[in-house]
Structure of Acyl-CoA dehydrogenase family protein:
Amino acid sequence: MSAFTLELTPAHHELVRRTHAFAQDVVRPAAARYDAAEECPWEIVDRAAQEGFYNALFYADLIADPTGLSLPLFLEEMFWGCAGIGLTVVLPALALSALNQAGTPEQVARWAPEMFGEPGDIKLAALAVSEPQGGSDVANLQTRARKDGGDWVLDGDKIWIGNGGIADVTIVNAVVDPELGTKGQAMFVVPKDTPGMEQVRRLRKLGHRASHTAELSFRECRIPADNLLGGEDKLEHKLDKARRGEGKPAALGTFEQTRPMVAAMALGVARASFEYACAYAREREAFGGPILDNQGIAFPLADLAADIDAARLLCWRASWMAANGVPFRLGEGSMSKLKASEVAVRAAEQAVQTCGGWGYVDDLPVEKWYRDAKLYTIFEGTSEIQRLVIGRSLGDPEATATPLHHHLPGDHGGLSRKFGHGSLARARAGETFLRLAKKAPESVLRLGGRLAAPGA
């Protein structure tokens, strides 16, 4: 198990450098054009594939990092460039996460390449969970899957689906046993152009306009039995456990993993807005000097500086916990998304306010970031849902009895336990030294002082 640390590895720094350069040189120059056209940025996705940022093994490698930091580092830099283009680039990773969580190794090997394609032959993937009547209420899914001979047949409606209708592979969450609630659900692979799956309409959005979002319908949509993720034996085993009151929902593991990912996306928008506001406030002069000299400008930016860093630390902690299988006791994944999404909205709003009238027109990028930021308090679970998750955990006396760090894994034995910093042995040694210091010569005191100094 990897220890939680804020020290980035050389590989982390290189990933940040490469991603930031791509975001700055390729993504940002194209952001306004694709936002205005509301088109899928195929050219940019192909460039991402050429740079190694768009393939199944790249995302699998990021997820496999035991520090948990590779994925949030990558996402923050990519979304610093443009949230809409960034979402198009990473949407297949959400579907890949569901495939990895629920699928067999054979299914992963079969479908993962079809989710990304390769440079010159780009493919897309989608994850279809949300429904018109349910939104964040995964327990209220109406899409049904029934077995018919050697096939599964899907019927229902999905909405807010990124890449919906244009994806080569769509992972669909559906109910197979309504009496079991969320535990009676399964996930299915639906290839592009499957009869019965139809794009009802493309949704026009406030922000993230470079990302294609659609409403889908499934009417007698027939797929082979092999397209049930995990296979029928695993499904029957899961349903039997659910009937005994055991197990967890099919989509739950995906949501636990994606909430820190969404937090990192929001941080990219927050940081872009914050950096621009600071730069503008340093250069814009009014009333005899830079407007940053005014407390009315400086103080809100100071609060944002602290809050963005705090949200990033929550994101990194949750990502590390997910990567190392450390249980979320107080909804730590939801904490990261809640704080990062809400600081993104505040940072974008403050950027508009700092730029004044210029911030309200599209001469500057801040109005776009303002539109983009709002999505993070809504998708992958609204802020209200995150608070509900955290609030429900407060009813567990074991979860709230002690701070989280009391339960984090680590080396609880060995010499460091007896002689490490803060140990009783070191405290007693310090007391002995202070008593002897009254009679010791000055040279000995200097030596002892160096040994006792912080960091020794």
Q: What stands out?
A: The mean pLDDT is 91. The chain has 17 helices and eleven strands. The first helix runs from residue 10 to 37. The two ends are 27 Å apart (CA to CA).
